[in-house]
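Structure in, sequence out. Go:
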């Protein structure tokens, strides 16, 4: 029962907290752990483990060297920081991280211009976790560099044959603010591409519009990438309502209009004049424009009249495994 289990846990705690020496250093272990009980808190291993993780988060917040039993009143947030960070450390080795790709299609020819690489993580305990949730924890866990190189290596291995045959083919990789400003990661990218004999011009880094005001020394970082031969794209244009003038201050090669903005102008013709002006100015500066979120065939014809260069969305293909899009590249 719970009473006897608590006694055993206290005995374990007393053993763990004993000091020990390493050379001339005395070490005092610190721990926190949570406990869930079967069948009180569930009968499945996944459910019990998740509730123990929730309890361990409470234990760490309370005090050092402490354990807590799960209670129904605890917030059962399956994506809590502790569980994300601890599970993410081993996600690459366990093969939990995957890449999916969504083609980017030329409106004038219907041919694939390139593809966006989308990182996916499905964990046995946490289920699907979005990059916006786990990327910040990758930095905290000290594995952002490993994660970044994993993505680039996978992209290169998947598309190497096609990149060598088509120098205009682009693979888009999303960058967070932490990655943009990390010169060590960028240097590793350059080393990796050189080793795999892939041109840097084939790699296009996507940066969210919302990051333009978040990253210090952004111009220096973007110029560094451009000077090293990488293509740069501004993603989700229309979500942060940056002025077009401020966007044009940066060395972007491509503009991606956010899916909600795209669907708005296609469904309601709302902001049509504004979008056309953006496209015209972009073209004058030799910047291509992509429409995201294209879900219906009638959108394609409208986007042509607006002057878009490319589109991306479920109408052509949803994000898919490389094996599913490979035949389209032949």
């Amino acid at each position: 029962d719970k009473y006897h289990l608590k006694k055993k846990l206290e005995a374990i705690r007393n053993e763990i907290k004993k000091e020990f020496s390493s050379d001339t250093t005395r070490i005092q272990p610190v721990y926190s752990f949570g406990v869930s009980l079967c069948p009180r808190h569930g009968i499945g291993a996944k459910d019990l483990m998740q509730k123990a993780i929730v309890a361990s988060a409470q234990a760490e917040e309370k005090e050092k060297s402490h354990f807590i039993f799960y209670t129904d009143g605890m917030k059962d947030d399956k994506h809590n920081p502790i569980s994300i960070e601890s599970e993410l450390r081993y996600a690459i080795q366990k093969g939990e991280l995957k890449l999916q790709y969504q083609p980017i299609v030329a409106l004038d020819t219907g041919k694939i211009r390139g593809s966006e690489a989308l990182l996916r993580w499905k964990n046995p305990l946490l289920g699907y976790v979005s990059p916006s949730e786990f990327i910040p924890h990758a930095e905290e866990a000290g594995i952002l560099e490993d994660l970044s190189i994993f993505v680039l290596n996978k992209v290169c291995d998947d598309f190497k044959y096609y990149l060598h045959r088509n120098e205009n083919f682009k693979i888009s990789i999303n960058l967070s603010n932490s990655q943009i400003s990390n010169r060590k990661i960028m240097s590793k990218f350059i080393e990796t591409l050189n080793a795999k004999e892939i041109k840097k011009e084939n790699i296009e880094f996507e940066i969210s519009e919302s990051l333009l005001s978040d990253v210090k020394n952004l111009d220096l970082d973007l110029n560094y990438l451009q000077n090293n031969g990488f293509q740069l794209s501004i993603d989700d244009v229309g979500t942060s309502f940056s002025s077009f003038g401020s966007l044009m201050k940066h060395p972007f090669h491509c503009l991606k209009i956010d899916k909600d903005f795209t669907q708005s102008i296609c469904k309601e013709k709302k902001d049509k004049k504004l979008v056309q002006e953006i496209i015209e100015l972009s073209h004058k500066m030799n910047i291509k424009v992509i429409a995201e979120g294209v879900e219906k065939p009638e959108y394609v014809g409208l986007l042509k009249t607006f002057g878009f260069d490319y589109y991306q969305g479920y109408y052509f293909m949803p994000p898919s495994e490389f094996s599913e899009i490979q035949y389209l590249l032949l």
